[in-house]
Amino acid sequence: MAKRCIEVAHSKGKSPQQLTDVYMSLSDELNENRMEIYRYINDNPTDYYSAYTEEEWEEFYDRSEVHYDRLRLEGEIFKSLLPKLNEVKHPMLLITAEHDAATCDNQINSFKQNAKQGLIYHFQDCGHTPHYEHPEHFKKVVIDFLS
Known about the structure:
The chain has 147 residues and is mostly helical. The protein has helices at 2-10, 16-28, 54-74, 105-114, 130-133, 135-146, and strands spanning 92-97, 118-123.
């Protein structure tokens, strides 16, 4: 699976939708370990699941899948919004993290150049889920930004 991921990462000419489809297929193969690709710290005591029953979580998942399928079919989800950054007139916060591959240099540079009131906060020792991995620190960053 790792070899397939590397092949996809180095492949040229795939559309965002094609890359997303491959990513979704590969991540589905991880089953219950899927979230491990997002988190750098896996032992935070935050328990998202305690608020709802397993049946409620399944319903939430089914609903989100319906919405995702609609977005995929419509196709707008695969179009870059980077050219629109300079149209936003309100302050924006871009949160990045040391071990998060979701935000690439191109996106960060575009944000730096085009966000009129853009602030970037970078989490160290963190993956894609700073709200899970460093919840108190994340809360402080967001509250400080909103204040």
